[in-house]
Design goal:
The structure is a single chain. The chain is an alpha+beta fold. The protein has helices at residues 7-15, 90-97, 128-131, 147-160, 168-189, 196-200, 204-215, 223-229, 234-245, 249-267, 272-278, 284-295, 299-311; strands spanning 18-21, 24-27, 32-35, 41-48, 50-55, 61-64, 68-72, 77-80, 88-89, 102-105, 113-121, 137-140. The strands form two sheets. Strands 1, 2, 4, 7, 10, 11 and 12 form a seven-stranded mixed beta sheet that branches. The chain has a five-stranded mixed beta sheet with strand order 6-5-8-3-9. Helix 4 runs antiparallel to helix 5 and helix 10 packs across helix 13 (299-311).
């Protein structure tokens, strides 16, 4: 079986997330740091204190103790003790803090802010699966019913940073991915924002069909079967699915199969004949035809190119 059988887990699996936690930020007095744009995701939470998060072109957002945030391919932004504080470039301060896993601003004895942050980078070939669905900022305040759980995760993560305990990097990486999943759930639940397949998971009918596809990608799904799972007529299901996800149902099935196939071919994990069967095709030739139509090259050519790139 290819994938994990769950849309979110499957997407994150293809993204191959690479996590760098820290350095954390401890500060006192008046301060401000300006960060440039960066790819993919930055995630963090305020362990103690309060500060302002100001994305270029957006209103300042005040962060309080226990608040958690996710930045998705954001514009340049500032972290500051107040919206009017004069910022300095963050790169220098961040570079100085890498060795100690902490950036300190102001007198250490007066520090009243502790911010734990991390950067999650994805496999560039598949990053659009998620990045295209994210807004620049997702925030969960401590007062939100889901905030307490996220604040606990941030607190555990903060306690791991810089300790040097056995297995620390593994714990940090997994905690960051757990935080990412929880933040995605929050974003998916914000129904005023269009979020593609992520939003569709919250729709009882469409979400059930998506989960069914991911649970058995090798099955020869028909429009009628997916509509029946959604308890909708075929025409209503097809319209609703495309409205939420952006492509017709059976095209989504094909695209997802090809995403899994590209990943397997790039990692060179199984023969093409086995991959054809695993993605729902009765013959290698049928699989190759579909792969070429979607990807633009044959499976054998794609794998050869991936091998050459890996050995370069």
């Amino acid at each position: 079986m290819l994938g994990y059988g769950d849309p979110v887990a499957d997407a994150i699996g293809l993204l191959r997330p690479r996590t760098v936690i820290g350095p954390s930020l401890r500060a006192a007095g008046e301060w401000a740091l300006r960060f440039g744009t960066f790819p993919h995701v930055r995630i963090g939470g305020l362990v103690t204190g309060s500060c302002w998060l100001i994305l270029d072109g957006q209103e300042p957002v005040r962060l309080e103790q226990g608040d958690t945030f996710l930045l998705g391919n954001p514009p340049a932004y500032r972290l500051a003790s107040s919206p009017d504080a004069d910022p300095r470039a963050a790169e220098g301060a961040w570079a100085a803090g890498v060795g100690d896993d902490v950036v300190r601003l102001g007198p250490e004895s007066e520090e009243d802010l502790y911010l734990c942050v991390g950067h999650i980078a994805f496999d560039e070939d598949n990053a659009s699966l998620l990045i295209d669905l994210l807004p620049p900022l997702v925030i969960v305040h401590a007062t939100d019913p889901r905030g307490a759980r996220l604040a606990q995760l941030i607190d555990i993560l903060a306690n791991e940073v810089g300790v040097g305990a056995a297995g620390g990097p593994l714990v940090e990486n997994h905690l960051a991915q757990v935080l990412l999943v929880h933040m995605l759930r929050v974003h998916a639940g914000q129904t005023d924002r269009p979020t593609g397949w992520l939003s569709a998971l919250n729709e009882d009918g469409i979400g059930a069909a998506l989960r069914a596809v991911h649970a058995d990608v090798a099955y020869s799904w028909t429009l009628k079967e997916l509509a029946d799972i959604s308890h909708m007529s075929r025409s209503a299901f097809a319209h609703s699915f495309k409205s939420h996800v952006g492509v017709p149902p059976l095209e989504y099935v094909t695209q997802w199969r090809m995403s899994l196939a590209r990943d397997e071919l790039a990692r060179d994990t199984m023969p093409i004949s086995d991959l054809a069967w695993s993605t729902g095709y009765l013959s290698e030739s049928a699989f190759s035809t579909a792969f070429r139509r979607v990807v633009g090259s044959s499976p054998a050519q794609f794998r050869k190119t991936a091998r050459q790139a890996a050995s370069a």
